[in-house]
């Protein structure tokens, strides 16, 4: 077959462009990425050979080989992994299949539009750009590869100019060799960093790839004076060149070492390498268990939540090993979904190498390991909350949402999740703007207070301006701020804490039973009775926009507010549902009017002159729209509202 030229997919071009103009300042990571791909390819060959030994063609000596060539300005990374055929070269190298990389490009575009710093380490750190990182240091890349079990080998070449070529070639063994034609900044003594220097390459392998399971080898050439038969150097003899192949990585999986022999930095480096993290993890868990099920687990809470943690394309799960041999990536069946942010691995001799995902789900051993790990993580979180509040709040800001979603999802997964998590959740409080636990809230509640009050809005400032907050603030009652749409769902699922029910300040009767509140309640009922016609007519003017119109006992200086009925979803929940494109759930809206506001007397006057007048109808509508706006809900017809306000202002 003649040499074919292919165009890169548009997104690949974009990524290549970024690599060439190097947004990464950390160029050296290209080696880690290519070694990691080589190691994955060997994993695949190893795994497939378990069922078809002939694939290995007698070559069972798995290894990755680095060959620097200072004269030619080249570096080759070769593996005897699974290799690729023509279609796979096109599919895997020419296009970007990974949603993560696509998302990376989108975020990058957004950052550019917003003029953000493109070298932002945190942002870039969330994405492994894999093979393409080769173009940060090379202006021309050649891949020679032969798929295990196939005869034909292929050569792929690109100078990152928008296209690549593929042609047939010869290769006597399976695997892939990637040759980088290095840019001049990256080779030679004068270079910024010399990737043809054996010692530099050795340093980088130790730094990033020390735990790669397969030997990473390289030839070192020495000049040596010949020795006589007693081992003494022969004086005056011409030096001879000697080549020694050295293995650069230690390969010993960190988790098999004794905990006491492992330094914190080693754990950190391991996680960064194994899980493509850029920052040290927040916490590391290293557990060994013997007994009914034997296992070693090395887990970590990464420093930051990935950008897509709550999106469907995020794949949670731990790596599974059996006797240090890799079985699978992203095993979801170990930890509950609310711990989806955990990264790590489990190595157990009780797991079978050839187990299918389906059988694994039913594995008793796996379930037992999962339960033990969950317990251990929850215990650590509880201890941190008690002893290291600063750490816990940092954790909470990154992953709190995951626990709250876990509580809400316990409707499906079983109510014991609520018991496990309810003491680990935090909310901001009106008391001092700090985060509090439910226990802390309840413990400092005055005895007369029977409920846990909360308010929902998108931010603290909006809540603090809610008319409903006025009374509670005046009475010094603490209110929890629920700022995330999931919060109210979680709270409603917990239902009550230490027998104290939760109560939204935007819902039904506040249930305050101090003397003053009782007094206000009585007075409000009387005003309501005296103005029953007015209330009825406002309701009639608003039609089915509201369920009811009432005189308010909760407002001090504001004219109106919108609350939801005791039963059914709240206004915030309704908004969350409609954002989820699920507008079925509607809150029963009740418009409350402050009888002590001057607007109330004006309303009465207009009502008396004629309940069917346009003016009365306009007033009712404007009142309702105001209440909506206070809740952060846009009116259905903003133009109509603006016109009515303008008309009134012109009077
Ligand atoms: N040495 C190799 N041997 C066989 N296949 C390879 C090799 N290097 C890359 N590939 C193939 O090319 C694909 C794309 O590689 P790339 O590094 O861009 O992404 P990835 O490895 O899938 O993801 P990540 O780098 O985030 O782990 C790989 O998934 C693999 O199928």
UniProtKB/TrEMBL annotation:
CDD domains: HATPase_Hsp90-like. One of its GO terms (molecular function) is ATP-dependent protein folding chaperone. SUPFAM superfamilies: ATPase domain of HSP90 chaperone/DNA topoisomerase II/histidine kinase (SSF55874), HSP90 C-terminal domain (SSF110942), Ribosomal protein S5 domain 2-like (SSF54211). Residues 1-357 are annotated as: A. Keywords: ATP-binding, Chaperone, Cytoplasm, Nucleotide-binding, Stress response. PANTHER family: HEAT SHOCK PROTEIN 90 FAMILY MEMBER. This is Chaperone protein HtpG. It comes from Mitsuokella multacida DSM 20544.
């Amino acid at each position: 077959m003649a040499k074919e030229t292919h165009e890169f997919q548009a997104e690949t071009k974009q990524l290549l462009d970024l690599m060439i103009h190097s947004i990464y300042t950390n160029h050296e990571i290209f080696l880690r990425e290519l070694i990691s791909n080589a190691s994955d390819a060997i994993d695949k060959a190893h795994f497939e050979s378990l069922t078809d030994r002939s694939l290995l063609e007698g070559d069972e000596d798995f290894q990755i080989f680095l060959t620097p060539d200072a004269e030619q300005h080249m570096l080759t990374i070769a593996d005897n992994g699974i290799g690729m055929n023509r279609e796979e070269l096109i599919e895997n190298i020419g296009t970007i299949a990974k949603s993560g990389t696509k998302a990376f490009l989108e975020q990058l575009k957004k950052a550019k539009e917003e003029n953000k710093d493109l070298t932002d380490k945190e942002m870039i750190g969330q994405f492994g750009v894999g093979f393409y990182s080769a173009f940060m240091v090379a202006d021309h890349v050649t891949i020679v590869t032969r798929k295990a079990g196939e005869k034909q080998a292929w050569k792929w070449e690109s100078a990152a100019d928008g296209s690549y070529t593929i042609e047939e070639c010869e290769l006597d063994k399976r695997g892939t060799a990637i040759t980088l034609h290095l840019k001049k900044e990256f080779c030679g003594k004068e270079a910024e960093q010399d990737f043809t220097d054996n010692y530099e390459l050795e340093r980088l392998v130790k730094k990033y790839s020390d735990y790669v399971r397969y030997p990473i080898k390289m030839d070192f050439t020495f000049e040596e004076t010949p020795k006589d038969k007693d081992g003494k150097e022969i004086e005056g003899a011409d030096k001879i060149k000697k080549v020694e192949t050295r293995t650069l990585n230690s390969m010993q999986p960190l988790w098999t070492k004794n905990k006491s022999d492992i330094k914190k930095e080693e754990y950190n480096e391991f996680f960064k390498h194994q899980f493509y993290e850029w920052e040290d993890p927040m916490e590391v868990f290293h557990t060994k268990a013997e007994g009914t099920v034997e296992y070693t687990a090395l887990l970590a809470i990464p420093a930051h939540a990935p950008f897509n943690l709550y999106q469907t394309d995020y794949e949670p799960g731990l790596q599974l090993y059996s006797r240090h041999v890799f079985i699978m990536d992203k095993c979801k069946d170990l930890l509950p979904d609310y711990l989806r942010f955990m990264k790590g691995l489990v190595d157990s001799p009780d797991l079978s190498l050839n187990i299918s995902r389906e059988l694994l789900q039913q594995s008793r051993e796996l379930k037992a390991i999962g339960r033990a790990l969950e317990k251990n993580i929850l215990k650590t979180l509880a201890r941190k909350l008690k002893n290291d509040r600063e750490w816990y709040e940092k954790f909470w800001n990154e992953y709190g949402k995951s626990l709250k979603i876990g509580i809400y999802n316990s409707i499906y997964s079983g109510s014991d999740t609520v018991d496990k998590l309810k003491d680990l959740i935090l909310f901001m409080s009106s008391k001092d703007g700090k985060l509090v636990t439910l226990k802390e809230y309840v413990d400092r509640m005055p005895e007369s207070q029977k409920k846990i009050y909360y308010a929902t809005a998108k931010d603290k400032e909006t809540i603090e301006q809610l008319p409903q907050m006025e009374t509670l603030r005046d009475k010094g009652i603490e209110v929890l701020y629920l700022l995330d749409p999931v919060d109210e769902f979680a709270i409603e699922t917990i239902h009550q804490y230490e027998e104290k029910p939760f109560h939204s300040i935007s819902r039904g009767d506040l249930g305050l039973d101090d003397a003053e509140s009782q007094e206000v309640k009585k007075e409000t009922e009387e005003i309501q009775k005296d103005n029953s016609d007015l209330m009825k007519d406002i309701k009639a003017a608003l039609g089915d926009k509201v369920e009811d119109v009432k005189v308010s006992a909760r407002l001090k200086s504001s004219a109106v507010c919108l609350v939801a009925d005791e039963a059914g979803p709240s206004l915030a929940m309704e908004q969350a549902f409609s954002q989820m494109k699920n507008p079925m759930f509607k809150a029963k809206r009740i418009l409350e009017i402050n009888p002590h506001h001057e607007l109330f007397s004006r309303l009465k006057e207009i009502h008396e002159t004629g309940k069917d007048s346009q003016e009365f109808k306009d007033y009712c509508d404007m009142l309702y729209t105001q209440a909506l706006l206070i809740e952060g809900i846009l009116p259905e017809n903003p133009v109509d509202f603006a016109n009515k306000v303008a008309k009134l202002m012109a009077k």
